[in-house]
Amino acid sequence: MRYVVSNKVMAESDKACIAGGVSSVELMARAAKGIFDNIDKSGKTYIICGKGNNGGDGFALACLMTEGGFDASVFYISDNISADAAFYRQRLIESGFKKIYPVCECDYECDLIVDCIFGTGFSGVPKKEYADVIKRINSSRAKVVAADIPSGLDGTGGRAVLAVKADKTIAIQAVKSGLLLGDGKDCCGEVVVVDIGIPIKGEKYAVIDNGFLRPLFQPRSKNCNKGSFGKSLIIGGSKEFPGAPKLAEAGRAALRAGAGLNTLCVPYSISGAYAESVVESTLFPMADKDGAFVFDKGSIDRVMKGVTAVAIGPGMGGDREENAKICEYIAKNFDCDCIMDADALNAFRENITVLKDKKARLLLTPHPKEASRLTGKSVDEILNDPVYAAKELALSCDCIVLLKGATTVVTDGKEVALIADGTPALAKGGSGDVLTGTICGFAARGISLFDAACAGAYLCAVAAKHAEKEYGDWGVLASDVCKAAKKIVDSYEERM
Questions:
Q1: Which of 36, 85, 128, 284 has the fewest beta carbons closer than 10 A?
Q2: For residue 326, how many C-alpha atoms fall within 13 Å in the half-sphere facing its CB?
Q3: d(CA 54, CA 81)
Q4: Coil, strand, or helix at residue 286?
Q5: What are the tens digits of pLDDT across the range 316-362?
């Protein structure tokens, strides 16, 4: 399984390596060699250097290009450069290299541009001169390779006001979280990691891949029945947001993920609207008022009988106080996995810590705006460091958090996993319901809630990519994701 590190961990690892006896100049030489080995050197190359150590990587790369007899020109943005960058610039000059120019002389008419402007420590908005260079790189005809990270991209949360759009990013030692989060995937292109001998000291974020999911679909024992694989329950729907087909897809997704039984619990007065859509699941009408749920202990006790995993919230609408009573009663009185999504989350705005004392194992599945409501932080604060925001929320109520995004973050406050296979095709109403149902189905089977969250997010992501091949990223529907998930699961079974 691949891993990703934060900027902080990478910086600390770098310092520890230098303290252990490897000079920073040597590390820069290794980084340059890694870049050199992974670029096309057959055409005309421009290396654009900033003033920090990322620029130093560029000067060191130019030394290797010169020694190898390859055509390269170096353009610098500032004369005020770091000590290590100055070391390699001087070495380049002493070698007789004549192609060092101020960036104002760059015509951007080349085959390859190597972006060595900003490193992973950059955040904010590039200043005027730097902004102009980045814009001209992006409008050039050249292929673009970024050294470690596309310049202008924040290395922690992946946010970018203006950043280089690279065709390839050569990550030094490890992928930084900003390459996968936020705007990172739109900026980095193909990502190649080069090992320069820096031992990682500190936390690593796991990146979920196919190897994680396939073992969850081993052949079933022949001596089994529907009760062998758990019972999932999805509580949702309202007069305001009936969404019968979408809720039915959530139930179907739970069964596709392997749950033996699934029940959909909907408000009594509108249950007739669901009868035609709900085929594979059992329909349980629950007490309501004007088409919205109301707390009814007797109904909850009946529907929760034998449930191993419950998902609450899709299309729930209605009264926040009543929804909160339902969620809190289930969380505090039933030993099961409990997934809260959508209106279940909105019921606990800035008050989610009331669920810290609970019997159920709890998973929250917010998008950034919902996370903002739960934590009182701004959406910008959430997006600046999604991993930290998710960990903080998880610790605040002793739960697991799945923070949705271009890359989804799953954490229990200590362990972190990233699902980086998301696609814009999932930006469609109903996708969240399918995700919630899928996670619920995995959890119902007895898979740990953390692993169920990772597996559900990954399966939906790869299924959406599969559906995208047929419908394009504009045309994929939630039902298409559910159908494609079946094909993904079938492919695992065929290989066994």
A1: 128
A2: 38
A3: 10
A4: strand
A5: 988 999 999 999 999 999 999 999 999 999 999 878 889 999 999 99
- Cα separation, 399 vs 354, whole angstroms: 12
Q: What is the largest CA-CA distance in the chain?
A: 86
Tally Cβ neighbours within 10 Å of residue 40: 11
Contact 75, 59 (CB under 8 A): no
CA separation for the pair 112, 41 (Å, rounded): 8
**Integer angstrom CA distances of residue 494 from 216, 218, 459, 489:** 14, 11, 17, 9
DSSP string, 341-370: -THHHHTTTT-GGGGSS-SSEEEE---HHH
Can you tell me the distance from the alpha carbon of 432 to that of 241, in angstroms, rounded to the nearest whole number? 14
**277, two tokens:** 């859509």
Locate 120 and state its tokens.
């992973």
Report how far residue 316's alpha carbon sits from residue 266's, in angstroms, rounded to the nearest whole number.
9
CB 446 within 8 A of CB 436: no
Residue in this structure with the two tokens 């303290």, named with its chain if needed: 19
**Which residue is associated with the tokens 């998880």?**
394
First to last CA, the chain: 20
313 and 344 Cβ atoms separated by less than 8 Å: yes
Element spanning 192, H or E? strand 190-194
**Could you tell me the two tokens for 208?**
């979920």
The residue to which tokens 């930084």 are assigned: 176
Alpha carbon of residue 211 to chain centroid = 17
From 283, 278, 211, 216, select the one nearest 445 (Cα to Cα). 216
Q: Bridge partners of 168?
A: 145, 190
Q: Alpha-carbon Rg of the chain, whole angstroms? A: 26
Task: Check residue 225 and give its pLDDT.
Answer: 67
Q: Identify the residue whose tokens are 């045309």.
A: 475
Average pLDDT, the chain: 92
Letter for the amino acid at 220?
R
> Do residues 111 and 132 lie in contact, with contact meaning Cβ atoms separated by under 8 Å?
no
